[in-house]
Write a sequence for this structure.
């Protein structure tokens, strides 16, 4: 694990007590407030044990800077995003390390539109943080703190009111769903949303107590308990989200965990069936999205990894749907941000109106096998050196907007430094699992060769 406070488009995160603590959180908040226009700041948090103390520090620092603060308490990342926009706030802060293990925590920063701040704004925040010159209000101008209790209800109502969601149709299907919220922030919204959709919900780890019983990243290898419960209950499918509920993964009716890549694919299929328009995904996302988009004769564009990059491109192009292959669905008709509860409603809508099971729908798509691994940094990540080595493999295309992605006739691999962990992500995809594994191995060999030590 990294011993540095990580700054990226995903905010500032670190290991509690080692690289991030209440003092760092206070300084980050004061620095952020110094970059904002006039107005209040919305604050929410996930359920990890350090979250309450960190949120108190954030709230105190916001008020100490002279601004009013709206405290949402435990709230999902998309809920905080939506409320920042709807309340007309100057910005928002989410206390969450998202999919990172429980010993991590972070601050995510939102502009007045309720979307992640840009790289330029992040650089300005970082400069303020490093400078340590923070303005404090005097005793007569300290900001007020107020709570806003109905934020989850507002989020749910926004989803149910979407034209894409036919509540009666979903209710008539009478889905049975096992829901795994990893005792995170999704626990305060997802059960109620599904109940409003007429779903028979079987709750699994929905206590919002911060007990992350599994690896927080909702990937197939971490969903064994959910898969078993789906089989035991004879459920139609299973839903799993990460601690701040901006990512959603699925388990099919046979109790098979589905690659989180297909959450976005299903949402894209549904939305494009209603409104044709541009689609935006990140460079690591599965090619299944392009396969679906071709059926609707629409274009897909790719950005560097990170919600901020995807959202900015979506707004530039007027995209009707987008997101990231980590289970992050972004549907701007609600709000331009990744949203697991929204993803649940879109998936249920697709299955209800097509009268199919999850597995039946997935079988309609071309076969794509994606593999994701992590490699610890054993040297500097050098895109130029890696690109030069990759060219020797004669790829059909190179994409270097975020690390190095190499395309071949039978698939692709992608090497990039993580925004959220001190490591390199190795992702590969092909039409068969063996070919995808071969691309992963090749990518790792290229990475090691770039460090000058094949045995690393």
């Amino acid at each position: 694990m990294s011993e540095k406070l990580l700054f990226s488009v995903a905010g500032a995160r670190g290991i509690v007590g080692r690289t991030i603590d209440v003092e760092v959180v206070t300084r980050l908040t004061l620095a952020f407030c110094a970059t904002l226009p006039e107005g209040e700041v919305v604050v929410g948090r996930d359920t990890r044990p350090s979250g309450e103390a960190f949120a108190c520090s954030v709230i105190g620092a916001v008020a100490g800077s002279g601004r009013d603060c709206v405290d949402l308490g435990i709230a999902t990342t998309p809920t905080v995003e939506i409320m920042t926009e709807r309340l007309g706030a100057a910005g928002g802060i989410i206390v969450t390390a998202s999919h990172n293990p429980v010993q991590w925590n972070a601050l995510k920063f939102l502009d007045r539109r309720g979307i992640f701040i840009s790289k330029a704004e992040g650089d300005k925040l970082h400069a303020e943080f490093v400078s340590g010159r923070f303005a404090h209000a005097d005793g007569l101008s300290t900001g007020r703190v107020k709570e806003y209790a109905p934020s989850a209800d507002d989020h749910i109502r926004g989803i149910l009111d979407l034209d894409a969601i036919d509540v009666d149709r979903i209710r008539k299907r009478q889905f049975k769903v096992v829901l795994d919220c990893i005792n995170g922030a999704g626990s305060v919204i997802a059960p109620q949303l599904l109940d409003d959709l007429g779903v028979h919900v079987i709750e699994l780890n929905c206590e919002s107590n911060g007990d992350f019983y599994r690896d927080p990243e909702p990937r197939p290898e971490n969903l064994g308990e959910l898969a078993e419960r789906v089989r035991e209950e004879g459920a139609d499918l299973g839903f799993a989200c990460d601690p701040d509920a901006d990512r959603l993964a699925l388990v099919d009716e046979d109790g098979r965990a589905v690659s989180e890549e297909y959450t976005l694919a299903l949402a894209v299929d549904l939305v494009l069936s209603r409104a044709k328009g541009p689609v935006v995904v990140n460079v690591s996302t599965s090619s299944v999205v392009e396969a679906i988009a071709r059926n609707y004769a629409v274009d897909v564009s790719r950005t560097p990894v990170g919600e901020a990059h995807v959202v900015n491109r979506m707004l530039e192009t007027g995209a009707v749907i987008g997101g990231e292959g980590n289970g992050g669905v972004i549907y701007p008709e609600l709000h331009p941000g990744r949203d697991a509860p929204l993803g649940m409603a879109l998936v249920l809508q697709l299955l209800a109106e097509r009268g199919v099971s999850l597995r039946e729908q997935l079988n309609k798509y071309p076969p794509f096998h994606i593999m994701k691994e992590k490699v610890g940094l054993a040297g500097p990540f050098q895109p130029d050196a890696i690109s030069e080595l990759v060219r020797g493999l004669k790829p059909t295309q190179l994409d270097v907007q975020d690390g190095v992605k190499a395309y071949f006739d039978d698939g692709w691999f992608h090497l990039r430094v993580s925004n959220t962990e001190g490591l390199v992500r190795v992702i590969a995809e092909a039409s068969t699992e063996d070919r995808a594994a071969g691309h992963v191995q090749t990518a790792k060999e290229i990475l090691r060769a770039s460090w000058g030590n094949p045995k690393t």
